[in-house]
Design brief:
The protein has a single domain, classed as FomD-like (FomD barrel-like fold). 22% of the residues lie in helices and 41% in strands. It contains three helices and ten strands. Strands 1, 2, 3, 4, 5, 6, 7, 8, 9 and 10 form a ten-stranded antiparallel beta sheet that branches. Helix 2 packs across helix 3. InterPro entries: DUF402 (IPR007295), FomD-like_sf (IPR035930), UCP012622 (IPR014465).
Length: 167
């Protein structure tokens, strides 16, 4: 398995841009700042999806997203959740992805992905023990919370005092 460094992104509220992990700068259509997080919505030039909506939720260590897929690339998922460190800023928010992901199929199940990537990153020194443990604890808490709310991410976030809304 190829082990890559944690993916880092920047969300520039002033310039209304999102710099992705590869350094590409994309124009953001909507930013909304709330006490519990940052909402971003932008068009995408990805071959599989054309629009991306995300909530960065620093206190939970989560980035919740909806990928608006092209019909021929549609996936069986309602929400995609990245586990990591998310840092608030006055003008620029930052994210560092810690490998683990959740796929939420509302009302049905929540699937944990990429445990192998997290363990490989730890084994090769790309993540220290504290960050690795935090990622596991964050994912566990999120899976438990989402499952306790009928596998409904939005319902769990609302119960946590973080009522999210989407486009």
């Amino acid at each position: 398995m190829h082990v890559h460094p944690p993916k880092v992104e920047a969300f520039n509220l002033t310039d209304r841009t999102n710099t992705d992990p590869k350094g590409f700068i994309r124009e953001v259509e909507h930013y909304r700042v709330h006490p519990w997080g940052l909402y971003m919505a932008r068009h995408a030039d990805h071959p599989h999806f054309h629009y991306l909506e995300s909530w960065l939720l620093p206190d939970l260590g989560l980035r919740a997203s909806i990928f608006h897929y092209h019909p021929y690339h549609a996936r069986d998922q309602d929400r995609y959740v990245d586990i990591g460190d998310f840092t608030r800023g006055t003008d620029v928010w930052r994210s560092e992805d810690h490998y683990l992901d959740l796929v939420v199929r509302t009302g049905r199940d929540t699937e944990l992905l990429d445990v192998d990537e997290l363990l490989a990153a730890y084994a090769t020194g790309l993540l220290d023990a504290a960050a690795t443990e935090r990622a596991i604890a964050t994912a566990t808490r999120a899976v438990d919370g989402i499952a306790a709310h009928g596998h409904d991410l939005d319902a769990w976030l609302a119960a946590e005092g973080m009522p999210v809304s989407w486009r």
